[in-house]
Amino acid sequence: MARLIETVAWVHLDERHRILGARSRGRTLFYIPGGKREVGEDDVTALVREVREELAVAIDPATVAHVGTFTAHADGHPEGTLVRMACYTAEHRGTPVASGEVEELAWLTLADRHRTAPVDHAVFDVLAGEGLLR
């Protein structure tokens, strides 16, 4: 039986049509910043908390908009483990910096797709199809 990991992620694009990616300590692949909900959290609450912990910025909850929900094999987990990632855009205050378990931030282009976790590939493809990621 497959195991499912539920997560939320913040899709943050810049004016050059790049997406912000984060890499955790000890990992090689980048991922779209975010993480797992804690008990009792809804998606917006989890997104605000995770982005604050990982990037030290404040998400404006009133501006959160759903981009899509994507499912793929969970990187670094046993075969049959899936991750379902609900992705959102949102306005924020502050400049993203690596904090918490995040070791490195990078602005990624479509050409960097191979440097990301499998679930991010679908997000990259959708954003590229909409002309938002180049």
TrEMBL record:
Keywords, comma-separated and alphabetical: Hydrolase, Magnesium, Metal-binding
Cofactor(s) for this UniProt protein: Mg(2+)
GO BP: DNA protection
Record domain Nudix hydrolase: where: 1-132
GO CC terms in record: cytoplasm
Cited CDD domains: NUDIX_Hydrolase (cd04690)
Record's protein name: NUDIX domain-containing protein
Species for this entry: Streptomyces radicis
